[in-house]
From TrEMBL:
Keywords from the named record: NAD, Nucleotide-binding, Oxidoreductase
Residue ranges of domain Glutamate/phenylalanine/leucine/valine/L-tryptophan dehydrogenase C-terminal in the record: 184-416
Amino acids binding substrate: 71, 95, 352
Catalytic residue positions: 107
Pfam families: ELFV_dehydrog (PF00208), ELFV_dehydrog_N (PF02812)
Record-linked PANTHER family: GLUTAMATE DEHYDROGENASE, GLUTAMATE DEHYDROGENASE 1, MITOCHONDRIAL
Binding site for NAD(+): 191, 222
Cross-referenced SUPFAM superfamilies: Aminoacid dehydrogenase-like, N-terminal domain, NAD(P)-binding Rossmann-fold domains
Record site: Important for catalysis: 147
Assigned protein family: Belongs to the Glu/Leu/Phe/Val dehydrogenases family.
GO MF terms, alphabetically ordered: glutamate dehydrogenase (NAD+) activity; nucleotide binding
Protein name: Glutamate dehydrogenase
InterPro entries per the UniProt record, alphabetical: Aminoacid_DH-like_N_sf (IPR046346), Glu/Leu/Phe/Val/Trp_DH (IPR006095), Glu/Leu/Phe/Val/Trp_DH_C (IPR006096), Glu/Leu/Phe/Val/Trp_DH_dimer (IPR006097), Glu/Leu/Phe/Val_DH_AS (IPR033524), Glu_DH (IPR014362), NAD(P)-bd_dom_sf (IPR036291), NAD_bind_Glu_DH (IPR033922)
């Protein structure tokens, strides 16, 4: 029996086993690489606005601390469970190793719907969660960051709560904070900008002209909206966008400025238009040059992978493509260029690393320096993945995962097993 169950963790396990077969990791050595070092579950009692007391469940999974502290987001979601959290921690480990960051992967969160909480209730949940996590986290143990359902404000509450217990300001305990509270320039846009940058690298490799290209973005939250704007700045026409409330498609291109204003006012895409409304399930299979799944896991499946009509699949979300879909896409390698999630959405953790370094040194960079350093890290990772693809003739995901897994494996081997 294992606490790590569910479709998302099984997906991470299957990906790991495929790569382990590819790079020759013995079966008896795999559990130490895959299974998390630590999982914490806590109760979060909160006084609600209606006078009642509600207890939420909170989790934090730390995958490994072999290369340094763990690093990962904190997700507030009504469907969150420990298996999903563990899978996200595992993927973060391979992502950090691929990008050369001195971290292991972590992930955490609270099973709640943040959009149904008042601001006071959200603050109470955030602060109590961090309070319960204090024995298990720290600037050199586990550094939290935002994820779905959390934002800069939640990170500021996390940082303040931890600091109150330490008796001093500890900005380096979380990343993704407001700049005014020790955050870094460029962090909020980092993941989306990174996706667009890597799409540009893929276009260079495929000799595509961004000025004549089209894109569809599934998910119009922080990552998806920034990606859409960054692609549009490169000359790419955005044909379709969606979130959990609505999907829109127009072969002549959508008005991104109007969409941004609407989401800024209402928080969701619903209500923006009636003429451009589209079937969310069919949006992913419309013809385009670039398809960006930037929402949740497991949206590219064995059923729809054969129907995709994109040239580049840029995985802005974590785990958007199932192993069954990967097998379909492996047969379409000449048609679809996949930028796997642990590379494609790495911009966020890279700039989070920059924020942590700046907080530790109390020496801050301007946005231009942050973006320049981000591009260098992503370019290096992209080059390494493509070199592996070219030398071993393997799918892009296998190449990226192999680099990350091998680095962690080598570090564990050289450090040995204590005691």
């Amino acid at each position: 029996m294992s606490i790590y169950t569910g479709p998302v963790f099984e997906m991470a396990r299957e990906q790991f086993n495929v790569v382990s077969d590819y790079i020759g990791i013995p079966v008896e050595d795999r559990d130490r690489l895959l299974l998390p070092k630590r999982a914490v579950a806590v109760a979060i009692p909160v006084h609600m606005d209606n006078g009642r007391e509600c207890v939420f469940e909170g989790f934090r999974v730390q995958h490994h601390l072999t290369l340094g502290p763990t690093k990962g987001g904190t997700r507030f979601s009504p469907t969150l469970d420990v298996g999903e959290v563990a899978a996200l921690a595992v993927w973060m480990s391979w992502k950090c190793a691929l990008c050369g960051l001195p971290y292991g992967g972590a992930k955490g969160g609270v099973t709640c719907d943040p959009y149904k909480l008042s601001r006071r209730e959200l603050e109470a949940v955030s602060r109590r969660y961090m309070q319960e996590m204090i024995p298990f986290v720290g600037p050199h143990t586990d550094v939290m960051a935002p994820d779905m359902g959390t934002n800069e404000q939640v990170m500021a509450w996390f940082m303040d709560t931890y600091s109150m217990y330490q008796g001093k300001t500890v900005t380096e305990i979380v990343t993704g904070k407001p700049v005014s509270a020790g955050g870094t320039e460029g962090r909020r846009e980092a993941t989306g900008r990174g996706v667009a940058h890597l799409v540009g690298r893929a276009m260079e490799r495929l000799q595509m002209n961004p000025g004549g290209a089209t894109a569809i973005v599934q998910g119009f939250g922080n990552v998806g909206s920034v990606t859409a704007l960054a692609l549009a700045e490169r000359g790419v026409k955005i044909l379709g966008v969606s979130d959990h409330t609505a999907a829109y498609y127009d072969r002549n291109g959508l008005d991104l400025a109007s969409l941004q204003r609407h989401v800024g006012e209402h928080g969701v895409l619903a209500g923006w238009s009636t003429e451009a409304l589209f079937d969310p399930g069919e949006l992913l299979v419309q013809p385009c040059d670039v398809l960006v799944p930037a929402a949740v896991e497991q949206v590219i499946t064995g059923e729809n992978a054969g129907r995709l009509r994109c040239r580049i699949l840029a995985e802005g979300a974590n785990g958007p493509t199932t192993p069954q879909a990967d097998r379909v896409l492996a047969g379409r390698r000449d048609e679809i260029f996949v930028i796997p999630d642990i590379l494609c959405n790495a911009g966020g953790v890279v700039v989070s690393y920059f924020e942590w370094v700046q907080d530790l040194q109390q020496f801050f960079w301007d946005e231009q320096e942050v973006l320049s350093r981000l591009a260098k890290v992503l370019d290096r990772a992209f080059t390494r993945v493509m070199a592996r693809v070219d030398s071993d003739h393997v799918p892009h995901r296998d190449a990226a995962l192999a680099i990350g897994v091998q680095k962690v494996r080598d570090a564990k081997k050289i450090r040995g097993l204590f005691p």
